[in-house]
Write a structure and sequence with these properties.
Length: 314
Amino acid sequence: MISLLRLIRFPNLVIIALLQSLIRYGLVLPILEHYGYNPVLSHIRFGILVLSTVCLAASGYVINDYFDIKIDRLNRPDKMIIENGLKRREAMFFHVLLSFVGVFTGLFLSYVARKESWALMFLVIPVFLWYYSTTFKKQGFIGNLIVSGLTALVAIVVVSLEFAMLVRVHGNPIIQTEACSTAWFWTLGFAFFAFTTTLIREIVKDMEDLYGDEQGGCRTLPIEIGIKYSKIFVLILTCFTLFSIWGLYFYFNILNSSQITLWYIIILITLPFIISLYQLKKANSPKQYHRLSTFYKLIMLAGILYILVAGQLF
């Protein structure tokens, strides 16, 4: 059981479930209440969405480790799970099981919401994750973009399903309301933060795994352009993220009129990012890059938890 929890990256799955739950209960529902709408999506069906998302993510982690055995023998032999804690056929069984549950529950939600595009999405994602593990991951920046995009999608599907269900009760005009535009604005903001921080973290993880990836024939960004220029790219991404956050803060009154928001951005977002840049400059070993990767995960968690503050602004 411990090996399985490690294989599916249980802490990461908790963060995924937390992000979706906070988006709905900490952000979307307060916005709907503010504009006088009652939610249509039941708690059970939202739970099914979380289950589907978590199962698909877990299946992706499993198949990624399955195809990374040779590389992991070089990068992290002491942390390998497949062949050490679980056999390869057991890992493949769990991948198939998790994929089936994720797709089946996703198709059920697509039927309930009358969203044919969702059905296609839930069918394509497992295929996408398979090809990511076998092909896209070895193509460096393309793989990083895919992982970051899927992370952003975790937030986006919540507001999409919520308003798909509202359309069934109120009709298409609700899409034109301020409630819808406000919910989408905030959700896309958090999706953007999840995308950029994940992209930064993925590049740092590629720096950590440079040796094994190079031996395994991967073409990650650090291999293609070198560690020095990869660090410069991370610096640019970090500055872009911070400038975007501060730009939104100064542009929107709902943000700059909140003292809690000001200090939250300074203490829990800006300062950690600045510290991360200092650590990035000093890092020159896999162990240091691993610590930095973990630090970026904490920054992402801090950004997600701001939803608790945002929900109180309405």
